[in-house]
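Can anyone check this?
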Amino acid sequence: MPKSIAIHPDNPQHRLLLQAAQVLHDGGIAAVPTDSSYALVCRLDDKAAAEKLRRLRGVDDKHHLTLLCRDLSELAAYARVDNKQYRLLKLGTPGPFTFILEATKEVPRRVSHPSRRTIGLRVPHHTMLQELLTVFGQPLLSTTLIAPGDTEPLNDPEEIRERFKGQLQAVVDAGACAMQPTTVVDLCGEEPVVVRVGGGDPALLGLTVQD
């Protein structure tokens, strides 16, 4: 069974954050809560872990993985951001938005979209996860925790441990979280495109959704 690390969602215990960070530094895959749903996470620079992340999620290399970043300054190190894009990012972070942007050379080519060289990026609004990112010291590669064959993300830490026993190294249990995916906005074209409407209101970014 994956190791269960129970961390307080609002006052996370530093020693337990260190435990979770060590699992990831050692090449493990962990399930962590976010402000949208539970997610699978691993180190960005670990090729084997990234491949396993995709297998667990049941997606190919054309599915955008997402970097969870602490703040906009960290995000800007991994994506090419112009002034117009930056203004939108400021409006939507931290929060339940994922932005598709052109990746910089800091992002290994194997984890970006194979033809577009793009990647998802977000700054989550979740106290425990923000603290974990700070302790870990770098962005985490992530994907929504939806088991192959399912359509909804898993939200119960014990169910996650049972469903993924032998496949995950840890489940960070900070209680249930929202079960609504992020709103995905593609910023790579001439104009922003709302790819998916989820927890973030596109109107906050001044965007409308076409019927």
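Reply from J.R.: I decoded it. The chain has a mean pLDDT of 93.
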